[in-house]
Design a protein that fits this description.
With 336 residues, this protein is of the alpha/beta class. The protein has two domains: 172 residues, Rossmann fold, CATH 3.40.50.10490; 118 residues, CBS-domain (Roll), CATH 3.10.580. Helix content is 45%, strand content 15%.
């Protein structure tokens, strides 16, 4: 019997679409998957903690694999693990049977994904882990399946209806698997003490990398600092401000600590008799500063809140100046 292809919606059909019905469908799908996730969270048990322990104990990588839609999810889980401090790699099960099993070593841990637990293409990977004593973590919805019975740690997915009206397209099951991968990655990340500065090592490009840039990466160093002593005449201060081009001067005490700053605003407030004064008389004491190991985004936030364009970088509150950061340095780097 010949099967006709599914109908294609033409322009006339699209014009007649019921928007309310479409929104209702979207809400139904999200509701089904949200309910499944809530159920999954309730039934997560000590096997999850055991899986995290096994991954932490690996001296190699976490090898993630799956076939079809599970394979797409496996790629994402491997990428998430790798970007959060757990070395990981996706291995296609079909390619594994044709030589890529050589990528899977005794130092690794294997995480296999299969909704049914009976995916034929995983057989060689399963057998490889059993032959060489490689820890195997299985994820499937059937605890009595071949994969789950072979696994050292079995992480069962709760039985849940697919959001597909025919109950065929992987929808809820892939959402559950993806969320489990995120949960494993975050548990590993927190256990390892993975911090923002580590995250930037793996995300140097794009908006995320920009958000994690440190002040030390952008600041102008000691040789560019506009500094004068508290007893310096204001004529000398004006020359230093003009020479450095930051529109500000840092005033240091006898021990070299930042005692205050002079900005354009301070100059205007002391315009009368300005050149007869000394730096210590004109400066604003207790200026805002930032440490070199702070995030540039934090520095930009301080400058925006105070409506200033520069921050002196010091080794601590009331400390010695190490550099200076201009708001334009942050903006050029994509921070903001």
């Amino acid at each position: 019997m010949r099967t006709e292809p599914p109908p294609q919606a033409g322009s006339a059909a699209r014009a007649a679409l019921d928007h309310d019905r479409l929104v209702a469908t979207g809400r139904r799908v999200l509701g089904i998957e949200a309910a499944a996730l809530a159920s999954f969270a309730e039934c997560l048990d000590a096997r999850f903690a055991r899986a995290v322990e096994v991954m932490l104990g690996a001296t190699g990588r976490v090898i993630v694999s799956g076939m079809g839609k599970s394979g797409h999810v496996a790629r994402k889980i491997a990428a998430t693990l790798a970007s959060t401090g757990t070395p990981a790699q996706f291995v296609h099960p079909g390619e594994a049977s044709h030589g890529d099993l050589g990528m899977v070593t005794r130092n690794d841990v294997v995480l296999l994904l299969s909704n049914s637990g009976e995916t034929a293409e995983l057989a060689d990977l399963i057998e490889h882990t059993r032959r060489f004593g490689i820890p195997l973590i299985g994820v499937a919805s059937r605890e009595d399946s071949t994969l789950m019975r072979a696994a050292d740690v079995a992480l069962p997915l709760p039985r849940a209806d697919e959001a597909c009206p025919n109950g065929l397209a992987p929808t809820t099951s892939t959402t559950l698997t993806m969320a489990l991968g995120d949960a494993l990655a975050i548990a590993l990340m927190e256990t390892r003490g993975f911090r923002p500065e580590h995250f930037r090592l793996f995300h140097p490009g794009g908006k995320l990398g920009a958000r994690l840039i440190k002040v030390a990466d952008l600041m102008h160093g000691p040789e560019a600092l506009p500094l004068v002593g508290e007893d310096a005449p204001m004529g000398e201060v004006l020359i230093e401000m003009s020479r450095r081009g930051f529109g500000v001067a840092g005033i240091v005490d006898a021990e070299g600590r930042l005692a205050g700053v002079i900005t354009d605003g301070d100059l205007r407030r002391h315009m009368a008799g300005l050149l007869e004064r000394r730096a210590g008389e004109v400066m604003t004491r207790g200026p805002r500063t930032i440490r070199p190991d702070s995030l540039a985004g934090e520095a930009l936030g301080l400058m925006n809140a105070a409506k200033i364009t520069c921050l002196f970088v010091t080794d601590g509150p009331g400390g010695r100046p190490l550099g200076i950061l201009h708001v334009h340095d942050c903006l050029r780097a994509g921070v903001g």
